[in-house]
Design a protein that fits this description.
The protein has helices at about 40-50, 70-80, 95-105, 115-120, 120-125, 135-150, 165-175, 175-180, 195-200, 225-230, and strands at about 5-15, 15-25, 30-35, 60, 65, 80-85, 155-160, 185-190, 205-210, 210-215. By secondary structure, it is an alpha/beta fold. It has a single domain (about 5-230), classed as Rossmann fold. The protein has a six-stranded mixed sheet, sandwiched between helices. Strands 2-1-4-5 form a four-stranded antiparallel sheet, with helices on one face. Strand 9 and strand 10 (about 210-215) form a beta hairpin. Helix 3 runs parallel beside helix 6 (about 135-150). The termini are far apart. Bound molecules: adenosine-5'-triphosphate. Adenosine-5'-triphosphate (ATP) binds near residues 36 and 42. Keywords: Amino-acid transport, ATP-binding, Nucleotide-binding, Transport. Involved in beta-(1-->2)glucan export. Transmembrane domains (TMD) form a pore in the inner membrane and the ATP-binding domain (NBD) is responsible for energy generation. This is ABC transporter ATP-binding protein.
């Protein structure tokens, strides 16, 4: 049995079909990366797994149990947390309050506490009473990741956590991933930077116009295959 599995997952925005039959697997301790051009359906996929877009009940399985029809709040409690694109912090709350909000839907047991998040990202302890808008983009991203971790997720879904950040800041954020894995979360990354995705992922899934165009461990994929799967030619 797999930790997380999607089974012919489809997604619609009204009449527009954004995903066509996506099959994906994630096992305990794995990191997988989803790559693909703008509009390929990567964010839609994460939102579908997180229950923000509703698909068929049996199109998303956690430990083999269908969860596709469960409301998003239940899905957090079951152990799936999303770090959304654009971070979506609560602007009128402090850094610490943003982190605490992530803990409201938490599973009973798990390693993540405020202290643990502050050990992972020490700058957040210093900025704990600040408004998110006064933080740098990288620090805001750390808050968004910390907020998701506070729910003690078994699956952490990360939507473009490096978008718009300087390379040195991206390196800081990626440096946290091994620690997150040690604490028991498996990770699904949506990543525009293919080189970065290939470095950290056990398997890469490429989306093209809502369809899975390629999947496999990075070492098995050639540049040509990836280019074709990404751009379609
Ligand atoms: P990006 O890197 O630009 O975020 P993506 O691969 O994450 O791209 P999605 O955001 O999942 O792609 O979008 C997939 C398709 O669904 C696109 O054609 C997009 O225009 C469409 N789409 C996304 N959100 C909505 C929405 N709320 N209403 C209608 N169509 C949408």
């Amino acid at each position: 049995m797999h930790l997380l599995e999607t089974n012919k997952l489809t997604a619609f925005y009204g009449d527009f079909q954004a995903l066509y039959g996506i099959d994906m697997l994630l096992d305990n301790g794995e990191t997988i990366a989803i790559i693909g051009a703008n509009g390929a359906g990567k964010s839609t996929f994460l939102k579908s797994v997180a229950g923000l877009i509703r698909g068929a009940a049996d199109s998303v399985l956690l430990d083999g149990t269908p969860i596709g029809a469960r409301p998003a709040a239940d899905i957090v409690k079951l152990g799936i947390a999303l770090v959304p694109e654009g971070r979506r912090l609560f602007p009128s709350l402090t850094v610490e309050e943003n982190l605490l909000i992530g803990g409201y839907g938490r599973k009973a047991a798990g390693p993540w506490t405020l202290d643990r998040v502050y050990s992972l990202f020490p700058i957040l302890r210093e900025r704990r009473s600040s408004a998110p808008s006064t933080l740098s983009g990288g620090q805001q991203q750390m808050v968004a990741i910390g907020r998701a971790l506070m729910s003690n997720p078994r699956v952490l879904l990360c939507d473009e956590i490096s978008l718009g950040l300087a390379p040195i800041v991206i390196a800081d954020i990626y440096a946290a991933l091994p620690q997150i894995k040690v604490e028991g979360s498996s990770v699904v990354l949506v990543e525009q930077d293919i080189v970065k995705a290939m470095k950290v992922a056990d398997r890469v899934y490429c989306f093209q116009e809502g369809r899975l165009s390629l999947a496999g461990p990075p070492r098995d994929l050639t540049r040509e295959q990836i280019h074709r799967a990404y751009f379609g030619s």
